[in-house]
């Protein structure tokens, strides 16, 4: 029977600081110029409309950027913010400004699973565009051929709701949800996946924000 492994990124595959410091610092000063220069891009137009709707802000770019920076400071994984960040990071990776790094156990584990026929997918708050760029430009080269699917809060839904995991299982074509294992560093995400019938592994990495969390009743591992 086909086995799937679905992976979270931040805190599970890569250090939280790589997202919250390196990537966020890269995106912060570029959000305003990106909105102004890509206003004709339907993805940007939709993201801006969503920011306005969610925040109630009616003003120009400066006010939108203040909202986006506020969400980043509070680490709110709001879909339109992730869309705009993902577009900026996509260009950053393509231009060589950014390179994705992983915890040392990650790439060997991904390659081993893939070689054994375990099918791999990603479910992250980071947009699919950002995810694909991230895995295409890593210190270990282009890892995109290892993954068959990418899911985010736009195409699957919130990571803390079981309905998102039910939707992903249906896209994967997994009739038995018990053939899917989800790895994450966030207990609430694991609870939602388990509610959808998935197997779950809490990744408790030393030094990471969730490294000391209580992952019960989920299986807990210090690495993949
Ligand atoms: C280029 S991938 C960026 C990942 C990201 O933006 C993020 O917020 C990570 O959240 P996760 O759901 O993977 O913990
Ligand atoms: Mg995470």
TrEMBL record:
It catalyses: 5-methylsulfanyl-2,3-dioxopentyl phosphate + H2O = 1,2-dihydroxy-5-(methylsulfanyl)pent-1-en-3-one + phosphate. Pfam families: Hydrolase. Keywords: Amino-acid biosynthesis, Hydrolase, Magnesium, Metal-binding, Methionine biosynthesis. It comes from the Bacteria. SUPFAM superfamilies: HAD-like. Its EC number is 3.1.3.77. Pathway: Amino-acid biosynthesis; L-methionine biosynthesis via salvage pathway; L-methionine from S-methyl-5-thio-alpha-D-ribose 1-phosphate: step 4/6; Amino-acid biosynthesis; L-methionine biosynthesis via salvage pathway; L-methionine from S-methyl-5-thio-alpha-D-ribose 1-phosphate: step 3/6. The keyword Cell membrane does not apply. One of its GO terms (molecular function) is acireductone synthase activity. The keyword Magnesium applies. Binds 1 Mg(2+) ion per subunit. Belongs to the HAD-like hydrolase superfamily. MasA/MtnC family. NCBIfam families: enolase-ppase. PANTHER family: ENOLASE-PHOSPHATASE E1. Bifunctional enzyme that catalyzes the enolization of 2,3-diketo-5-methylthiopentyl-1-phosphate (DK-MTP-1-P) into the intermediate 2-hydroxy-3-keto-5-methylthiopentenyl-1-phosphate (HK-MTPenyl-1-P), which is then dephosphorylated to form the acireductone 1,2-dihydroxy-3-keto-5-methylthiopentene (DHK-MTPene). Monomer. This is Enolase-phosphatase E1. It comes from Saccharothrix longispora.
